[in-house]
Design brief:
- It contains eight helices and seven strands.
- It is elongated and about 55 Å long.
- The two termini are about 30 Å apart.
Length: about 210
């Protein structure tokens, strides 16, 4: 009987295991979560993003909330089940320089324009995160800011980098974890946040709410 009870307890523990839903198709965010032992279900947001602010930190928080809320609404039946708890994570990243917000480039010339603005100077990367805890209904939104210092680059170096294709799906037209690492002089803040998700802060928010990681 004792063994049967323990077996039932283990089954109940598995049933209570939290399911993490990533409201993004970004492989970089998925990899960052996997790095700390979180294997998220990927359920990309389909929301039409609407921005009402020009402040970068407000923009990323607003967009991350829209993504998480969109997925929560479409995931509603599962999020309110009595089985596994669910946490939905929405995130958005922008690059800011001289007060201008740089998103993903429209084409190669737009990428060249952005990188020309960034080379030889310091800019800011903001990543916003919204976490919706399905069972409690709690919603947590925050933004992380990281200063990134870029070495001077020639036009030839910029165009050679753009030709790799790496900049085209990234805010500010560069990936700090890719070829562009050759031009990074240093950062002040969270490196992972520049990649796409401040995973340490995410884990902290999960931990203080009793959500096991790994």
């Amino acid at each position: 009987m004792g063994k049967a009870v323990k077996g039932m307890e283990r089954m109940e523990d598995r049933e209570r295991k939290t399911t993490i839903i990533l409201a993004s198709a970004s492989p970089r965010r998925r990899e960052l979560l996997a790095q700390v032992g979180i294997a998220p279900e990927v359920f990309p947001s389909q929301v039409d993003e609407v921005v009402t602010s020009t402040q970068p930190d407000h923009v990323v928080m607003e967009l991350s909330a829209q993504k998480a809320e969109d997925v929560a609404a479409r995931y509603h039946d599962r999020a309110t089940m009595t089985g596994p708890d669910i946490v939905i994570i929405g995130s958005d990243t922008v690059v800011s320089v001289d007060g201008a917000i740089l998103g993903k480039p429209h084409d190669t010339e737009d990428a060249v324009r952005m990188l020309t603005m960034l080379q030889g100077r310091t800019h800011q990367v903001y990543t916003g995160v919204t976490m919706i805890f399905g069972r409690s209904g709690e919603c947590v939104t925050f933004a992380e800011k990281t200063e990134v210092h870029v070495y001077p680059m020639t036009e030839e170096q910029i165009r050679r980098y753009v030709a790799t294709g790496e900049p085209m799906d990234k805010a500010g037209a560069y990936g700090i974890q890719g070829y562009f690492a050759a031009y990074i002089q240093g950062i002040s803040g969270d490196y992972n946040s520049v990649v796409g998700l401040p995973v340490g802060r995410v884990c902290r928010e999960l931990s203080v709410r009793g959500v096991e990681i790994g």
